[in-house]
Amino acid sequence: MSERLDVDDVLKSLPAWRAHAGDRPAIERKLVFADFNAAFGFMTRVALLADKVDHHPEWFNVYNRVEVVLTTHDAGGVTRRDLDMARFIDETAAAMGVKA
Q: Would you say residue 79 has pLDDT above 90?
């Protein structure tokens, strides 16, 4: 099992993310793309990595908006796996023109 990290500490290195308001430790980010095609392309890129590393985001998509929640369920909170995924999401979004 992965070691749990403090959400506030994780967020110090992820300025575009915030603590998830739900009932469990998690981080979230809301992204807005140019259109549905760009949003779906982003989700596809993230999905390919998620499948490869066996760590899948919780997300919601409507047209050009994507909302992402990251947590490691078996650890009961945020871990290095979530931090790594968040960084990949940030890099991918920035490469697609999304501003923080």
A: yes
